[in-house]
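Batch manifest, entry 17 of 40.
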Amino acid sequence: MPSNFGRLGAQYLDMASNDTAIRIGRAAEMLGVSVDTLRRWERAGRIQMLRSAGGQRVVPLDAVARLVAEQRLEGADRQIAAQSARNRFAGIVTRVEQDRVAAVVEVLAGPHRLVSLMTAEAVDELNLRVGDEVVCVVKATNVIVEVAAGRDRA
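Output type: structure tokens
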């Protein structure tokens, strides 16, 4: 092992036999940050990097997964400043049905019954339960208009 690795000697990684780490550039891409940002995070102790057999910095996949989860939580805490959707319906969740992948959430919003199809993961992240107060945001690209049968069209 090269001597210039200093304190990283114990973290020396043979990438040919280990697939639990990825190159720093790929990690940066997955996290939506620059390689320089990852290097700063390493110096700050936010992430630990290893070295490949060739001396390249690599990032353990579990560290990338942890940072992705942190980013998701940080994003969930942000307040919405504005949005383009204008059709917002405040209501009460009246039904939640989910399996391992998909979910159906029904909301009673005034005289309207809205049904949302979403992932089961979304239901879990939102912790949706019958009786919860929610706001349904509708952004539709198609609106279908019907007329009653037998209506005089003169």
